[in-house]
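dumping this here so i dont lose it again. seq + smiles for zinc ion
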Amino acid sequence: MVFGWGKRAEAEEEDDDDDDEEMDLVLFQGALNGVQPNMKENARLVSAGLMLAKELVTNGLSRRAGSIRVDPKGERSQVTFIIDGVAFPGDRISKQEGLAITQVMKLLAGLDIKERKVPQQGGLKAEFEEKPYELQVISQAAEGGERLTVRCTDTKVKLDTPNDLGFTDEFKQKIRALASIPGVFLVVGPAGSGVTTLKFVVVRGVDCFTHQIFTIGESGRKLDNVTAFKANEGDSLEQTLGRIYRIDGDIVITPDVRDAETAKMLFNPDEDDGYKAALIAEMPGKDPPAAVVQLLEWIGDPVAVSKGLNGLIMQKLIRTLCSKCKQAYRPNPQFLKKVGLPEDLKVLYRKPKVEEDEPEPDSCEKCGDLGYYGQVPMFELLEMTDEMRALIATKPDVSAIRTQAKKEKMLTVQQDALRLVAEGKTSLEEVQRVFKAT
Ligand SMILES: [Zn+2]
């Protein structure tokens, strides 16, 4: 669906000679909630803000921003682009421009433009350089006005299967086994780290032809071979799980583990038969050891946790070096040893370094001189070996769990990061940045 005003706006752009480069502007399409924006009634707002909003979103998409933010800052508004998880300041615009952009984006997303205090969230479809996008529009009250966040998703990019996320064969098999045996398998991570994506990747990795897979309630995503199970109104999670067991469900995607109540129900097996299905859930948390400690606290029965838990997986994203401009260098073997990389590595890569007395390297068109292009996940897997179960039954703290995991050579995000460095996919500088931030 293309609105007439989208075309008109583009025609207007031809008179605009501010842009040195010829760039087609983003095309805004329908609101995801189906609300038709009333452009006529809001003609003044549209004429003040539509072009600005288009230019801003075009700028963001052409820089591959995952989100664009407009924040009121005193008499002006500050634009920020989040590119591969890193914030880069954009223009400072006038407060009126910031306000007009915010209101237009809300209008296009089918939100209430009169409401400026209560947080709102909606979305719209868009097209840029012949690629379809979904723009999630979030408005929330902020000092001096409203903060606008536009999250941009390229709907063609698929992150659905273990291969899409770069699981190795060995890792794939391990996850498949852990996620299909009776008990609890948790996908842990801080908000915004792709936890939900990872959960569905885990589920897709399971053999759906030999397992009956159910999800309780709305999953928000369409999944082949996964049946959405409608809970009876008023039923507890326990009762709902009971109904799924009666129809022989093997794997159940349960609601997120966010409180003691949910945690207790998941770790409450049948007295005679134990766990009847593999329960897969998201759990917010810093990392797997911290999540285990939180479970121990919530459930209050370390033995129940040690028996019920099958494993915890986490992912963390790291930027990948731009394949066009990354620079090879010969690392110092002692340094390699110090950081935990194989000493015989002959070459590592980094973002082009500008040497003082050398001419500046050519500008890179691909990454816009950021040196990085895109992100990949690093994984951590806490496995429930006999030793780990025995430890958890003693209600250990985070460091004791970490020590045990290290002793058993379980995969951590730090190790996985070094693998990516050794493979030339990212740099040591980027690893430092990612782990310093937490
Ligand atoms: Zn580059």
